[in-house]
Specification:
The structure holds two protein chains of two kinds. Chain A contains no helices and eleven strands. Chain A is mainly β. In chain A, strands 2, 4, 5, 9, 10 and 11 form a six-stranded mixed β-sheet that branches. A five-stranded antiparallel β-sheet of chain A has the order 1-3-8-7-6, with no helix packed on it. The radius of gyration of chain A is 13 Å and the shape is globular. The model of chain A has no long low-confidence stretch (mean pLDDT 94). Chain B is mainly beta. In chain B, strands 2, 4, 5, 6, 9, 10 and 11 form a seven-stranded mixed β-sheet that branches. Chain B has a four-stranded antiparallel β-sheet with strand order 1-3-8-7, with no helix packed on it. In chain B, strand 4 and strand 5 form a beta hairpin. Chain B starts with a strand and ends with a strand. Classes of the chains: A mainly beta, B mainly beta. Chains A and B meet through strand 4, strand 5, strand 9 and strand 10 of A and strand 5 and strand 10 of B.
């Protein structure tokens, strides 16, 4: 059973606007979360992370928000750029291994 | 920069063949992982290793085995390939402390089993 879910397989956003990618999880033991970005024909690359003791982490144009009570995290990209077009995976750790979501394909339209 | 390389980008094999997928990392990472990526299923962990000669089953180990004879190299073995093992295979490595260290991924091997 999928413990980490990304319910939107795809998302299209105009350049300069905000992109919001969502991720839900079911396991309350998850205490560390990451976002990865994947371009075609390349492996995923780490983007940003957040510990469960925080509710927000920011790195340049990328901000991750964590709502533990809702078991929900989101990645905000502001402003979105065409080079952000990729598949984004969220991942969660229970201290033993990472569990990945199914991915959301983001297209930023110039 | 960490570099994780995988022996093949594309591989085509026949049902029943024994298949070896090789992964090498150059940053002296203790942990190494094998995932498969399938549409609608995301990345699923097959096996991982904390150290040389050590291995742990992930979520979907059936039909696979692994070998880690040297710290930098982690091999995934399909003893008798089947069509349902057609997938993208991704290798990753990380520093000690699997739960909180980012994983560095290789470019992937797209395996097709006919």
């Amino acid at each position: 059973d999928q413990q980490v879910k990304q319910n939107s397989p795809s998302l299209s956003v105009q350049e300069g606007r905000i992109s919001i990618l969502n991720c839900d999880y079911t396991n309350s033991m998850f205490d560390y979360f990451l976002w990865y970005k994947k371009y075609p024909a390349e492996g995923p690359t780490f983007l940003i992370s957040i510990s469960s003791i925080k509710d927000k982490n920011e790195d340049g144009r990328f901000t991750v928000f964590l709502n533990k009570s809702a078991k929900h995290l989101s990645l905000h990209i502001v402003p979105s750029q065409p080079g952000d077009s990729a598949v984004y995976f969220c991942a969660a750790s229970d201290g033993n291994q990472f569990y990945f979501g199914t991915g959301t394909s983001l297209t930023v339209i110039p | 920069d960490v570099k994780v390389t995988q022996s093949s980008r594309y591989l085509v094999k026949r049902t029943g063949e024994k298949v070896f997928l090789e992964c090498v990392q150059d940053m002296d990472h203790e942990n190494m992982f094998w995932y498969r990526q399938d549409p609608g299923l995301g990345l699923r962990l097959i096996y991982f290793s904390y150290d040389v000669k050590m291995k742990e089953k992930g979520d979907i180990p059936e039909g696979y085995s692994v070998s880690r004879e040297k710290k930098e190299r982690f091999s995934l073995i399909l003893e008798s390939a089947s069509t349902n093992q057609t997938s993208m295979y991704l290798c990753a490595s990380s520093l000690t402390g699997v739960s909180y260290n980012e994983q560095f991924f290789g470019p992937g091997t797209r395996l097709t089993v006919l």
